[in-house]
Structure formats: C-alpha cells, structure tokens
C-alpha cells in the first residue's frame, strides 16, 4: 500500500534512523531530504518515477516520520549533522541529493560542514524566501499554495504533522525562519539545479533566481502550472529534471 | 514560554559577579541603549548603597558571605549542567538583528569598551558557575580540591566542549568561598549555539575579533579536561600562593584562620589562567567558521588582562578628539563596575582596572605617567569584602589621581570608610558616573578600519599584539 520497498533502519545520529527505499539494489543511490514537519512519505510519487534508474532512499530526519528525535527539537545544524552522520553510516557520501523546501536548507547546511558528502543536488522549492521570513507570511503563502497541490497531499501532511507534534513543529519553524540559507548556498560546489513550480507562492521566482546565482555550478528550471511540493504534485517533471542533471554530471557511473 | 524558563534556569546557574557574565550583560544592555547599573542585576540606588555601607563591619562581612550563598547552585544541579544552556544564555542577551563585528574569547573590562565602540557583542570563552560548598575550609586547598573534583569531572564528562577549572583563592574570594566553589568553564569548541548565533546575526563580511590572553597559572589535573587552580591573578604573586610566607601568615592570623600557611596540591602543568586566560583550543573552530562564512579574523593578544586597558583608553581619546571633544576626562573602572554607555555619554576615556590591588594600581600609575595629562581623573573601586593582601587603600588611589590630574583627581562612588567591605559599591557606581557633568549623544560606531587608522597614527607602544 505504501509503495515503498523494505524499510531501512540505521543506528546513527544518536538514534535509529529510518529510510524508505525503492529501486534495485545495484542502482546508484539518490537521497531525498524532506521539508518542515514532513517525512519520506510525500516522496512516494517521485520515487516511483525514478526507481527504474535509481535506488531512491528517502530518509526521515530525527524527530520526523519514523525516526525518533531527541527531546529538544534540532536546529538546522542539528538536522544537517544528523543527515551527515547517517550518510556516513550508510556509505552514501557523494550520492545525489534531492531536497524539498526546508530539506534544501538542511542540504545547504550540510555543505557548510561536510561538503565531501554532497553529490549533485536538486533543490526543489528551496525555502525560506529572504524577504518573507515571518510566520504570517509563510503560513499565508502555504495556505494559498495548497490550491495547486494534488489531492491527497493535505491528508498525508496532516498525518506527518500530527506525528511530529506541535512542539517540534513550532521549534523547527523558528529555526528554519532564522536560518540564513543564502550564506550557505555558495558551499554547494557540486552541480545543482534549483527547481520551482511556476505557481509556487512560497518560493517566488526572484528568490530562486537569487539562490541559483549563489550556486557555483547552479542552474534553474521551472515546472509550468505546478506549486511547491513538486515531488508529490509534479513528480514526472521533477524526475525528468533530476535525470537531466545527473545525465549532465554522469554521476551514475560513480 | 519554555525558552524563557530555560533562560531563567541558565541565568540562575551563572554568577552575578563574574567578569564574563558582566561583560555580556553590560554589552547586551548597551546595544539596546541601556547602562550597566548595579551590574545589570537589579536597580541602582545610592540610598540603599549608603545604608548597606553604614552597617557594622561584621554585618557587612556577613552580607558578602550571604551573597556567595545566594549565588551558589546546588551540587546536583551543577553536575547536570549543559554547556549549551550557558551558550544560549549569552547569545540571548543580544537582541539586535545584524552586528557589524563580534568580539570573542578572553574576559577583559577594556574589551567591553572596545566592543561597545564597534557596537559588537562579546561571546565569552569562560563562564563562572558557583557550586554550593559549605563544607570545605577556604585555607585547606587539598580538601577543597578533593571535595569538588567529582563534580568537576562529571561536568567535564558530560560536556566534551568544555574544560572545567576549579579555582580556589582564599586571598581574594574568602567571603564567597565560605559557601561556594568557583567552577570556571572554558569553551574549547565554538559549539552549535554560538555558530548559529554568528551565522544568523553577524553581518556578511563582519570581522571576528579574537581576544587572546596568554596568562597561565600552575594547575593540577583532577580528571579529563578538569583542573584545580589554587589562587588567581590579584594582589599576591603566583609564587606566594604556592610557597606562602610571612605576609600570608599575617593575613591568616587577621582572618582568624587556624592555619598559618597554605599547602596546595602539587601542580602538574601550567595551563590558561582559570578566569582570564585564553585556551587556544577554541581557535581552530573560529578559524573554520570564519573561513566558511567569509569573515576576517583579527586577533588581539595580551600577556595580562590588564594590558588591553592602555590601548583602549588611547583609542577612546583619539576617537573623542576626532569628534572634536576634549577627551580630557579619565574614568578608571575596576573589575566589573564598568559602564560602556556612561563612558561614551560623558565623553570620558575609560581605563579598566582588573581589580583594586597593587598590580592594577601600578598599571594606572604607569599609564598616567606615560600619557598626555588628563584634566580630570575619577577612580571607582570594586569591593570584594575583605582586606586581601595587596589591596590598595583609598587614600593612595586618591593621591595618585590628584597628583596626576591637571584639574581634579578623585575617588568616585566609593564609601571610603567601608571599603573594601563597601557592600553598597555595586549599587553606587553608575549613579556616580551619571552625576558627572557633560552629556554627549552616542556616536556612530567605529569600524575596524578606524581602529587600523588609530593604530597607524598612534606612536605609543602598547603591550598588545594585533594581527
């Protein structure tokens, strides 16, 4: 029913990290990093489209999805350290990374302290727009965006949010809003693509343009008619863009 | 809510009279446009100060001891402390959006004025936590070491980012030692809280000023990253703590101690001095952070904490003159009774005295001899609650000020009869500074380039290494 393969559990980052896996064992790894309050679950549609070519691994960061987190919610550095620990523990250093929304912040922070772990990077809907770092603006934008998302996403997200709990959600939101991601993007030295849905209200075009300009090897792509959660609502197009990035870099031969 | 509770909890762990705590509080408040009255721990009141100073001798002595008791934290709480709580406390004192610079490292009252000039926050390497300890005798250092070592080890074990120094000084901290053990925690790693603060709140390209004080002291290891230090910088030379002679015997007799000399544990190495010394272990993290985020690092190295005072005083004088102010009023502040806001509002040149002891007196004397004459000289003195060996009496301070000032030289905000048991001292210094005449508006901040310009223009040799 979930559409994923056998789950993977790894002792790392001071907890038992859960990752959902889909794709042949001998295919190159592609690591998905979820956004605020989410989990591996909303990567399902994208994973199904990519699983012919990759072994898609969607990790639950500590405190989210099926990975237990510490009592004190982690800040961005805490999350990226956990991601790094887990990548090392599973031997996935250098794998391609796909982040959605706040997942992009975690990847950018990982690049600051552990750049060697990064393969090619897909930043889909990178948050948080520098000009709108406040709760009312973000929540307003999220509400408007839900119009452009596929049916079923709301139910899935609500389940993830409940699982993560209001306290962690609030604390994580505070850390994400304060995170100066624009100071970190320059550390992603691997090839990277910034993707946005043309109707994404959370991530305006001016912001993705700014992000792209900060990436040493970055370019941008836009998916017409799509909103913020491209991995769920526009998986085919995002899969195409991901493949074309990896074709360019030839990272499959790794 | 939980944030505020957490904040109050961390503040409760720290000690109100600690040098670093006061630096952080003074600057946090200065950057919000406020002064450092009563060590930022309560309201200032000359009236209450007068009443406290008028109490009989024994009552005042008891008051100092009671202060120590109130500042002490129960042992079980201390051994559970988390270094991040303390880091969090420090960063939360600064509420600004973007700072043009940051000062980081060793404690120094002169650095408060340097940071204030730059509008920079200060992040301390060392913080003091007072553990409740009523059982040990101040003059029995071995007993004190043994009693506190398990706690020191426990903290070090739980906090791999910290080194723990149990500092025991029966000469200067005697009344406090009746009830508390001094645990000075030195940060060896920048840590995620400080990193996050710098990432988010330091303006792009803003300089990081690393304050390095190379002063060391003989210490004894009691566990991994846990040390015991007997004595500290003050009126007695280090040697006298370890091989005490007639002066210490006389002091112990006066204090009614059954001991006639001190017998500290055999030291095994020289390590950074517990309160003022800088442990260079922190440096690599700072360099790493600066490199990753594109901040230049400026390093100021001094051999003694006091060495920064002349250069900061000269910087202020130069700055005032550039603004067309006379800069002919010197305000000598002692220990934590500094006020960056009032120094600037008065147009006064701040000269920080590390304490009220002979070495501080000599530093002020040497500075006044070497520099261009000031018209007015005001000296304020901290009271530690007893006549420690080496305390310089008020009349000598006054004589120095009077003799060196072209106009008036005086001791300011000190109850001369009560000193150095002037229990109202901390409530009095800010009102005393405030009572001085001129008023100026706060100037725009200096930049690091301004400081370079000052250094290029000044011909005075300062015992400070900038790089």
UniProtKB/TrEMBL annotation, chain A:
A Pfam cross-reference name: Abhydrolase_6
InterPro entries membership: AB_hydrolase_1 (IPR000073), AB_hydrolase_fold (IPR029058)
A GO term for molecular function: catalytic activity
Domain AB hydrolase-1: 30-240
Entry-linked Gene3D superfamilies: alpha/beta hydrolase
PANTHER family tied to this protein: ALPHA_BETA-HYDROLASES SUPERFAMILY PROTEIN, HYDROLASE
Protein name, as recorded: Pimeloyl-ACP methyl ester carboxylesterase
UniProtKB/TrEMBL annotation, chain B:
Domain of life: Bacteria
Name of the protein in its database record: Uncharacterized protein
Origin species: Halopolyspora algeriensis
């Amino acid at each position: 029913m979930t559409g994923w393969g056998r789950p993977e559990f790894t002792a790392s980052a001071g907890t038992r990290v859960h990752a959902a896996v889909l794709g042949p064992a001998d295919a190159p790894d592609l690591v998905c990093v979820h956004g605020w309050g989410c989990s591996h679950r909303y990567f399902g549609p994208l994973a199904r489209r990519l699983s012919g070519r990759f072994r898609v691994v969607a990790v639950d960061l500590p405190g989210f999805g099926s990975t237990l987190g510490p009592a004190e919610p982690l800040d961005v550095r805490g999350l990226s350290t956990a991601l790094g620990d887990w990548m090392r523990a599973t031997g996935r250093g250098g794998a391609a990374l796909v982040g959605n929304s706040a997942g992009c912040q975690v990847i950018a922070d990982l690049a600051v302290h552990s750049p060697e772990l990064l393969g090619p990077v897909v930043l889909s809907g990178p948050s948080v727009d520098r000009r709108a770092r406040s709760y009312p603006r973000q929540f307003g934008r999220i509400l408007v965006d839900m119009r452009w998302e596929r049916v079923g996403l709301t139910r899935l997200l609500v389940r993830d949010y409940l699982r993560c709990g209001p306290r962690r959600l609030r604390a994580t939101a505070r850390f994400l809003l304060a995170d100066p991601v624009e100071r970190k993007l320059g550390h992603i030295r691997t090839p990277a693509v910034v993707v946005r849905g043309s109707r994404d209200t959370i991530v305006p075009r001016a912001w993705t343009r700014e992000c792209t300009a900060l990436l040493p090897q970055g370019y941008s792509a836009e998916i017409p008619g799509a909103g913020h959660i491209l991995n769920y609502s526009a998986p085919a197009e995002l899969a195409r863009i991901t493949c074309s990035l990896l074709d360019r870099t030839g990272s499959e031969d790794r | 809510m939980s944030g505020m509770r957490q904040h109050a909890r961390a503040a409760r762990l720290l000690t109100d009279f600690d040098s670093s705590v006061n630096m952080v509080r003074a600057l946090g408040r200065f950057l919000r446009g406020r002064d450092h009255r009563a060590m930022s721990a309560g309201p200032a009141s000359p009236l209450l100060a007068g009443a406290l100073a008028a109490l009989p001798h024994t009552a005042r002595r008891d008051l100092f001891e009671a202060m120590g008791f109130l500042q002490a934290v129960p042992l079980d709480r201390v051994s559970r402390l988390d270094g991040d709580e303390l880091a969090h406390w420090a960063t939360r004192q600064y509420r600004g959006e973007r700072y043009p610079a940051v000062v980081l490292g060793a404690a120094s009252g002169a650095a408060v004025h340097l940071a204030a000039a730059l509008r920079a926050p200060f992040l301390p390497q060392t913080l003091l936590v007072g553990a409740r300890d009523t059982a040990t005798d101040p003059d029995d250092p071995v007993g004190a070491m043994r009693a506190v070592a398990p706690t020191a080890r426990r903290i070090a074990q739980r906090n791999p980012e910290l080194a723990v120094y149990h500092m025991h000084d029966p000469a200067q901290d005697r009344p406090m030692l009746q009830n508390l053990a001094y645990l000075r925690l030195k940060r060896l790693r920048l840590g995620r809280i400080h990193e996050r603060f710098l990432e988010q709140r330091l303006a792009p390209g803003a300089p990081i000023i690393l304050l390095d004080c190379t002063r060391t002291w003989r210490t004894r290891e009691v566990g991994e990253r846990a040390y015991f230090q007997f004595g500290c910088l003050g009126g007695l030379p280090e040697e006298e703590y370890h091989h005490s002679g007639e002066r210490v015997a006389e002091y112990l007799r006066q204090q009614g101690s059954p001991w006639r000399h001190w017998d500290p544990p055999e030291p095994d190495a020289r390590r950074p001095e517990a309160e003022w010394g800088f442990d260079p272990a922190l440096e690599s993290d700072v360099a790493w952070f600066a490199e990753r985020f594109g901040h230049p690092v400026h390093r100021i190295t001094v051999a003694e904490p006091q060495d920064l005072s002349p250069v900061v005083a000269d910087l202020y004088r130069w700055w005032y003159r550039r603004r067309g102010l006379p800069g002919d009023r010197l305000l000598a502040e002692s220990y934590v009774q500094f006020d960056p806001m009032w120094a600037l509002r008065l147009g006064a040149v701040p000269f920080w005295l590390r304490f009220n002891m002979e070495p501080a007196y000599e530093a002020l004397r040497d500075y006044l001899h070497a520099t261009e004459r000031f018209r007015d000289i005001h000296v304020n003195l901290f009271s530690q609650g007893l006549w420690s060996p080496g305390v310089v009496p008020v009349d000598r301070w006054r004589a120095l000020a009077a003799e060196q000032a072209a106009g008036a030289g005086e001791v300011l905000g000190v109850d001369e009869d009560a000193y150095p048991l002037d229990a109202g001292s901390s409530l009095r210094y800010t009102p005393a500074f405030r009572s001085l005449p001129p008023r100026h508006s706060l100037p725009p901040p200096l930049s690091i380039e301004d400081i370079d310009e000052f250094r290029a223009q000044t011909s005075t040799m300062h015992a400070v290494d900038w790089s």
